[in-house]
Amino acid sequence: MKLRRQSGNVFLMLAALVATILLGGAANAGGQAYRVIYDFGQGSSDGWLPVGVPAIAKNGDLYGVTASGGTYNWGTVFKLTAPQAHGGAWTETVLHDFPSDSQEFPESLVIDKDGTLYGTGEGPSTRGFIFRLTPPISGYGSWTYQTLYTFQSSADGDAPQGDLVFDAEGNLYGATQAGGELSCGQNGGCGTVFELKRPTQVGGKWRFSVLHTFTGIPDGIQPFAGVTFDQKGSLYGTTNWGGPLGSGAVYRLTPPAKKGRPWTETVLYSFAQDGPMGSHPEGPVILDGSGNVYGTTAFGGDANCQGGFGCGVVFELSPPAQKGGAWTDATLHAFQGGNDGIDPSGYMLFDSKGNLYGTAQVGGAGNGGIVYGLKPPAHKGGAWTETVLHAFTGSNGDGNQPASGLTWGKWNYLYGVTAEGGSACQAPGCGTAFELQP
Length: 438
What we know:
Blueprint: H1 10-29, E1 34-39, E2 47-56, E3 62-69, E4 76-81, E5 91-97, E6 106-111, E7 117-123, E8 126-134, E9 144-150, E10 158-166, E11 172-178, E12 192-197, E13 207-213, E14 228-229, E15 235-239, E16 249-254, E17 264-270, E18 286-287, E19 293-297, E20 313-318, E21 328-334, E22 341-344, E23 349-350, E24 356-363, E25 370-375, E26 385-391, E27 399-400, E28 407-408, E29 414-418, E30 420-421, E31 432-436
Antiparallel strand pairs: 1-31, 2-3, 3-4, 4-5, 6-7, 7-8, 8-9, 10-11, 11-12, 12-13, 14-15, 15-16, 16-17, 18-19, 19-20, 20-21, 22-24, 23-24, 24-25, 25-26, 27-30, 28-29, 29-31
């Protein structure tokens, strides 16, 4: 969980007030194009600080985790039941409270095709863990919690980051920010990519294995997000540091031709501190049908933004025409601060027309982050067009810091959470869940 706060100024506060009025009016006139569907922290047992991308069930219900709050104040797994009619009220239910022992501070959640939930967490008394939450058979009663794996030492990884992903057989894959090779030049290790294999028999043990251990400058340091599959079964991801140029990398892990052999890592792109493609990617990547890779960087882009560090970019990598050639890089959008966003770090999405959607966790008119859309050019080689779909203010019940990104849900709306904001708690707020019609 990577969140950063930036103090606003008088101009931003006034802009936030104007934006709140204008955006609120637009939402009402357009049939609630944006609205907060839940304020966290409404009771002593309610969770707060929602993190991770929401998991959406087939019927549109939304599942997620909070890193704090709940009965023991160590986080919760929650469910938001979707209304039958659009515009109705969502109902929150806490499915699990994390106790004050080795299982604390959940970080992410995904849902399997049978409705079972899987997630990760970390805390001061653990190197990280992977858990499962199974729904009751009858549809009523308590959910069953089980820890599938606890990271034991630096060798297998430390601090899992980002969402887990499934393969066709239901095995789980992810990345850890630290652990692995301790001599890689990064205190605590440079991170790992792992697999958690589903048991072959009911009630059997899940089998954990490290697919790749990052070694430092050559191949990357500290993956801050999870991994993404392509159509051939290869895994793609980013590291926040490292790579040949030192400021992060996009990598690919190719499965072995023969079962049991090691996976092969390839650095597809290395970011430079002052490069045009930005630097220090914090989020995951997504792929289109042609194998192009899209992602974001936290810094770089406009040299006039953030005192020369840049406000981040959205980038594209196109595969080489010939095997073994260099990938072609392109900057789709450089964030400029001000009314535009700063630090895009969450999960992005495509729609059916090729438009990209994502979040920047700060910036915007209210300095509380934005939801943005990027429209592809009409002609190849043209510029992509950015539109700020919503600017978070953190005031009047609105959210603040949408760090995790977006997912598609019911009514073909975009859904996400903000770590702060809302009206249920005192400033800076306990966080919100929101929906947005793109």
